[in-house]
Amino acid sequence: MALPTVWGAIAITYKMVCPLAQQNGLGARIVTSAVFFVVGSGLILHVRRTLLRELQQIREVAGAAQNVLLRPLPPRIDGLSIAAVQHSADLGAIVGGDLYEVIATEHGVRVVMGDVRGHGLAAIGTVAAVLGSFREAVHDEPELGCVLRKLERALARHLRERARAEHPSSAGLDPESPVAEEFVTLLLLEIRCDGEMHVLNCGHPWPYLLRSHREPAGVRGHVERLSSDEPLPPLGPFPLPAELPVERCGQLLPGEALFLHTDGVEDARDSRGRFFPLPAALTEAVRVQPVSPQSVLRTVFAGLLRHTGGMPADDVALLVLRNDRRRVPVQHGAAVAQRVT
């Protein structure tokens, strides 16, 4: 407040003390107007600088908080190369309704990719509840199904607390409340030391398997969906079944990669209403050999932004994992997967 007080004191002193300010001539009026214009401009510039400084501080704090929530992934985890990107539909937000995490555990590398109903800042609370539960459960639970049940309980607990906060007079979920319709599509993936993949899918898009080559010889790059089986319902509206069908999806061999995404990618439309051709974009990305997670991510995300004119209507998350482990012979002629160092 010191600088505005000084500017105000200058203006008042000039008006009360300066003889020129008491005159009514044209020249005196011009000088007085100029003085008050300078004082007003100084005040406006000071307020503007103050607001910009506070806005920058708020952005730094928000960015730090959002990076803790959806923390940047390391480039390599337990022999897997990783690249990921998240784009929020809300302008200025780093994190939206999409979530992902990759954690190495004694049970294998475990991955979650999810999409909260809605998008942007309103979904961050649900993202925090699911990610927090996942980061704890993956180390404690040997079975992938038990991890999913913990995520279901964490989501239900979060929705109950949110409903009580939004409807203090209600004992439970209000059927007319948006909280009652909250759900999360979720893909849980486990990649074991030998590359064997186990998946639980709750209403989420299936990942794509990216191979460096295929038959016939000379054909470079191959893209296929990991599975086309009917997934479980999304978490939230319905309880999980008593038996959880963990699906075995073969092995992720050395040099192969997985592409995980949220539905904001395939549902993205251009100005003519056409959907983004994700399989074609992936096929183009894997033509460059060897397949690099960073290059696949750049190619697909750049194509998505071009397709939508730089403004996707929904949150978008992309995650690429490549198996960089190599097989070496052991004493009895078997083969084990080891990390490339």
Describe this protein's structure:
- This protein is an alpha+beta fold and 341 residues long.
- The chain has 2 domains: 2-60; 75-338, Phosphatase 2c, domain 1, CATH 3.60.40.10.
- Helices cover 38% and strands 24% of the residues.
- It has helices spanning 2-17, 26-69, 124-140, 144-166, 263-266, 278-285, 293-308, and strands at residues 76-77, 80-87, 98-105, 108-116, 184-191, 196-202, 208-214, 219-225, 247-251, 257-261, 316-323, 326-329, 335-338.
- Helix 1 runs antiparallel to helix 2, helix 3 runs antiparallel to helix 4 and helix 6 runs antiparallel to helix 7.
- Residues 328-341 have low confidence and may be disordered.
Give the biggest sheet. Answer: 6 strands, antiparallel
Distance between the termini: 58 Å
| CATH superfamily membership of the largest domain | PPM-type phosphatase domain
Low-confidence stretches: 328-341
The CATH C-level class name of the largest domain: Alpha Beta
What is the share of helical residues?
25-40%
- The share of residues in extended strands comes to 15-25%
Structural domains: how many: 2
Number of strand segments = 13
Work out the helix count.
Answer: 7
The run of helices and strands is HHEEEEHHEEEEEEHHHEEE
Cα shape: elongated
InterPro entries: Bact_Sigma-Reg, PPM-type-like_dom_sf, PPM-type_phosphatase-like_dom
Organism: Streptomyces sp. R21
Transmembrane segments: 26-47
Domain PPM-type phosphatase: 80-323
